[in-house]
Amino acid sequence: MTTNTNNENHASGTDKRVLQPEGWAAPRGYANGVSAVGRQVYVAGQIGWNAQCAFESDDFIAQVRQALANVKAVLAEAGAGPEHIVRMTWYVLDKREYVSRGREVGQAYREVLGREYGIAMTAVQVSGLIEDRAKLEIEVTAVVPPRG
Predict the structure, then answer these.
(1) pTM for the model
(2) In this structure, are residues 141 and 41 in contact, taking their beta carbons and an 8 Å threshold?
(3) 41 Cβ partners below 8 Å, 6+ apart?
(4) Span 79-108, pLDDT tens digits
(5) Which of 124, 110, 104 has the alpha carbon at shortest distance from 82?
(6) Closest Cα partner for 31 from 114, 122, 113, 120?
(7) DSSP 109-142
(8) How many other C-beta atoms are found inside a 10 Å radius of the C-beta of residue 46?
Protein backbone atom coordinates (compact mmCIF):
# COMPACT_ATOMS: atom_id res chain seq x y z
CA MET A 1 0.00 0.00 0.00
CA THR A 2 1.32 3.45 -0.88
CA THR A 3 0.33 6.52 1.00
CA ASN A 4 0.94 10.19 0.58
CA THR A 5 2.90 11.28 3.63
CA ASN A 6 2.81 14.88 2.45
CA ASN A 7 -0.85 15.74 2.05
CA GLU A 8 -0.03 19.21 0.81
CA ASN A 9 1.19 19.57 -2.74
CA HIS A 10 4.74 20.86 -3.11
CA ALA A 11 3.79 23.85 -5.24
CA SER A 12 0.55 25.68 -5.67
CA GLY A 13 -1.54 24.07 -8.37
CA THR A 14 0.55 20.93 -8.80
CA ASP A 15 -0.70 17.39 -8.65
CA LYS A 16 2.45 15.82 -7.30
CA ARG A 17 2.38 13.26 -4.51
CA VAL A 18 5.20 11.67 -2.58
CA LEU A 19 4.73 7.91 -2.33
CA GLN A 20 5.77 6.44 1.01
CA PRO A 21 4.82 2.83 1.72
CA GLU A 22 3.31 2.32 5.16
CA GLY A 23 5.88 1.23 7.74
CA TRP A 24 8.92 2.31 5.69
CA ALA A 25 11.51 4.57 7.27
CA ALA A 26 11.32 8.05 5.76
CA PRO A 27 14.19 8.78 3.36
CA ARG A 28 16.33 11.87 3.91
CA GLY A 29 16.65 14.33 1.07
CA TYR A 30 14.61 12.43 -1.51
CA ALA A 31 11.40 10.42 -1.98
CA ASN A 32 10.99 6.69 -2.57
CA GLY A 33 8.47 7.48 -5.27
CA VAL A 34 6.44 10.31 -6.78
CA SER A 35 3.25 10.43 -8.81
CA ALA A 36 2.23 13.45 -10.86
CA VAL A 37 -0.22 14.50 -13.54
CA GLY A 38 0.66 16.87 -16.36
CA ARG A 39 3.04 17.62 -19.25
CA GLN A 40 6.30 15.70 -19.00
CA VAL A 41 9.65 17.46 -19.42
CA TYR A 42 12.83 15.45 -19.92
CA VAL A 43 16.14 17.15 -19.20
CA ALA A 44 19.19 15.50 -20.73
CA GLY A 45 22.20 14.82 -18.54
CA GLN A 46 23.71 18.12 -17.45
CA ILE A 47 27.34 18.42 -16.43
CA GLY A 48 29.30 21.09 -14.61
CA TRP A 49 30.15 23.35 -17.51
CA ASN A 50 28.68 26.75 -18.31
CA ALA A 51 26.38 27.82 -21.16
CA GLN A 52 29.38 28.06 -23.51
CA CYS A 53 30.35 24.42 -22.76
CA ALA A 54 33.43 25.52 -20.79
CA PHE A 55 34.40 24.23 -17.36
CA GLU A 56 35.10 26.97 -14.86
CA SER A 57 36.28 24.57 -12.14
CA ASP A 58 37.43 21.02 -11.57
CA ASP A 59 36.06 21.11 -8.01
CA PHE A 60 33.29 18.58 -7.44
CA ILE A 61 30.96 20.97 -5.57
CA ALA A 62 31.43 23.74 -8.12
CA GLN A 63 30.45 21.27 -10.82
CA VAL A 64 27.44 20.11 -8.77
CA ARG A 65 26.27 23.71 -8.45
CA GLN A 66 26.75 24.38 -12.18
CA ALA A 67 25.06 21.14 -13.27
CA LEU A 68 22.05 21.94 -11.08
CA ALA A 69 21.94 25.50 -12.48
CA ASN A 70 21.98 23.99 -15.97
CA VAL A 71 19.06 21.71 -15.06
CA LYS A 72 17.14 24.69 -13.69
CA ALA A 73 17.80 26.71 -16.89
CA VAL A 74 16.55 23.90 -19.14
CA LEU A 75 13.44 23.48 -16.97
CA ALA A 76 12.75 27.21 -17.26
CA GLU A 77 12.66 26.86 -21.05
CA ALA A 78 9.69 24.53 -20.57
CA GLY A 79 7.96 26.85 -18.11
CA ALA A 80 8.94 24.50 -15.29
CA GLY A 81 10.87 24.86 -12.07
CA PRO A 82 12.38 22.72 -9.33
CA GLU A 83 8.93 22.15 -7.83
CA HIS A 84 8.00 20.16 -10.94
CA ILE A 85 10.91 17.69 -10.75
CA VAL A 86 9.69 14.15 -10.10
CA ARG A 87 12.83 12.14 -10.89
CA MET A 88 16.54 12.92 -10.73
CA THR A 89 19.47 10.65 -11.54
CA TRP A 90 23.04 11.49 -10.55
CA TYR A 91 25.97 9.82 -12.30
CA VAL A 92 29.14 10.39 -10.30
CA LEU A 93 32.72 9.31 -10.97
CA ASP A 94 33.66 8.96 -7.31
CA LYS A 95 31.03 7.80 -4.85
CA ARG A 96 33.39 8.44 -1.93
CA GLU A 97 33.66 12.11 -2.86
CA TYR A 98 29.88 12.32 -3.31
CA VAL A 99 29.28 10.78 0.13
CA SER A 100 32.09 12.55 1.99
CA ARG A 101 31.02 15.93 0.63
CA GLY A 102 27.32 15.25 1.17
CA ARG A 103 26.74 18.34 3.31
CA GLU A 104 28.25 20.54 0.60
CA VAL A 105 26.21 18.74 -2.08
CA GLY A 106 23.08 19.42 -0.03
CA GLN A 107 24.01 23.07 0.44
CA ALA A 108 24.60 23.54 -3.30
CA TYR A 109 21.32 21.75 -4.04
CA ARG A 110 19.37 24.05 -1.68
CA GLU A 111 21.07 27.16 -3.09
CA VAL A 112 20.10 26.28 -6.66
CA LEU A 113 16.86 24.26 -6.38
CA GLY A 114 15.57 25.23 -2.96
CA ARG A 115 14.16 22.72 -0.52
CA GLU A 116 12.31 20.57 -3.03
CA TYR A 117 12.94 17.02 -1.81
CA GLY A 118 9.79 15.34 -3.10
CA ILE A 119 11.86 13.81 -5.90
CA ALA A 120 12.58 10.16 -6.64
CA MET A 121 16.38 10.19 -6.78
CA THR A 122 19.02 7.71 -7.82
CA ALA A 123 22.79 8.09 -7.59
CA VAL A 124 25.09 5.78 -9.52
CA GLN A 125 28.87 5.57 -9.67
CA VAL A 126 30.11 5.29 -13.25
CA SER A 127 33.56 4.55 -14.63
CA GLY A 128 33.57 7.57 -16.91
CA LEU A 129 31.61 10.34 -18.57
CA ILE A 130 31.87 11.54 -22.16
CA GLU A 131 33.46 14.86 -21.16
CA ASP A 132 36.79 14.09 -19.51
CA ARG A 133 36.68 17.00 -17.04
CA ALA A 134 33.13 16.23 -15.89
CA LYS A 135 32.91 14.79 -12.37
CA LEU A 136 29.15 14.19 -12.48
CA GLU A 137 26.10 14.29 -14.72
CA ILE A 138 22.51 14.91 -13.61
CA GLU A 139 19.37 14.09 -15.60
CA VAL A 140 15.84 15.04 -14.60
CA THR A 141 12.22 14.34 -15.41
CA ALA A 142 9.67 16.99 -14.47
CA VAL A 143 5.89 17.10 -14.73
CA VAL A 144 4.16 20.44 -15.23
CA PRO A 145 0.51 20.38 -14.14
CA PRO A 146 -2.24 21.17 -16.62
CA ARG A 147 -3.40 24.77 -16.66
CA GLY A 148 -6.86 25.65 -15.63
Answers:
(1) 0.87
(2) yes
(3) 75, 78, 80, 84, 141, 142, 143, 144
(4) 999 999 999 999 999 999 999 999 999 999
(5) 110
(6) 120
(7) HHHHH-S---SEEEEEE-S--SSTT--EEEEEEE
(8) 21
